[in-house]
Specification:
- By secondary structure, this protein is of the alpha+beta class.
- It contains eight helices and eleven strands.
- The strands form four sheets. It has a five-stranded mixed β-sheet with strand order 5-4-3-8-9, with helices on both faces. It has a two-stranded antiparallel sheet with strand order 1-2. Strands 6-7 form a two-stranded antiparallel sheet.
- Helix 4 links the parallel strand 4 and strand 5.
- The longest helix is centred in the C-terminal third of the chain and has 38 residues.
- It starts with a helix and ends with a helix.
């Protein structure tokens, strides 16, 4: 990778990972070299289920098999010969996967799709073998797959989720965005996670939110109540107002119970005094 392009790609990744409140104070103009290589928010976008790609074994698969209605999906777009940025994103997601209590293939799926039409199933197979080994857990079924496809198919997928990339003829490589996409079990884009690192809290909450309470424990639903997604921070933050309302409601309920108990005690004492007087 040429040094100038690497610097530009790293700068873009940092911009995408920085909260928007801080970015407003800085110059966020995208360099001309990276025009079209960003992420456009498309909340609720549908995964193109009928899109046909090839998996690491060379078999043709439809994307719909990865949103079969029972597990959230983490989608990454990366090309397998990328000299730097794609590996950083993949490694960032892998680290989050390793730190998560959930297991790929059991509670959710992770899918990596190459946007380079020159990538082959063999390259996908080798890449998958390396990452599954580094993951260090048994992967059930299609819980962690790597796909390839032709330019038209992959471009359709990238456009659907808002992922920008383009070929840089000078550097002979792709300029592209950095991030991951979390889908609900029925194939709707729930959250876009930006950057090359994915804090465990954001990763876990994105999965739990995408699961809509259908996946995970009661404690997971408690966490979703306590945190909400902040578009400006591009991450999950403590839901202060929600917690204050819940705390207020709980205080009122406890006060009400205490008053009822006090009223019953006073009523019993009044009756006891009346009986003693008679």
């Amino acid at each position: 990778m040429s040094r100038p392009l690497f610097v530009l790609l790293a700068a873009l990744a940092l911009v995408l990972a920085t909260p928007a409140r801080s970015a407003r104070a800085a110059d966020t103009t995208v360099p001309p070299e990276l025009t079209g290589a960003d992420i456009v928010e498309r909340p609720g976008a549908l995964l193109p289920r009928d899109l046909k790609l090839r998996d690491q074994s060379g078999q043709e698969v439809e994307l719909g098999r990865y949103v079969a209605g029972d597990k959230p999906l983490v989608l990454l777009l990366a090309y397998y010969e990328c000299p730097m940025l794609c590996s950083l994103v993949l490694n960032g997601v892998l680290q989050a996967m390793r730190e998560s209590d959930w297991t790929a293939g059991k509670e959710y799926r992770t899918l990596v799709v190459s946007f380079d039409p020159r990538d082959t199933p063999k390259a996908a197979r080798e890449k998958r073998a390396n990452y599954v080994e580094a993951y260090g857990r048994p992967v059930v079924g299609d819980g962690f797959d790597f796909l390839v496809g032709d330019e038209r198919s992959v471009r359709a997928l990238a456009d659907a989720v808002g992922f920008g990339y383009r070929w840089d003829e000078t550097a002979k490589q792709y300029a592209h965005a950095a991030g991951a996409f979390v889908f609900t079990p029925d194939g709707r884009l729930s959250r876009t996670l930006y950057g090359i690192t994915f804090p465990q809290k954001n990763f876990n909450l994105a999965l739990r939110e995408a699961g809509s309470g259908q996946v995970g424990s009661a404690w997971d639903r408690v966490l979703l109540f306590c945190f909400h997604y902040d578009p400006d921070a591009r991450g999950y933050v403590l839901a202060t107002q929600r917690l204050m309302k819940a705390s207020g409601a709980a205080s009122v309920a406890l006060l009400g119970l205490w008053l009822i108990r006090f009223w019953r005690m006073e009523r019993s004492r009044t009756r006891a005094r009346a009986n003693k007087a008679s």
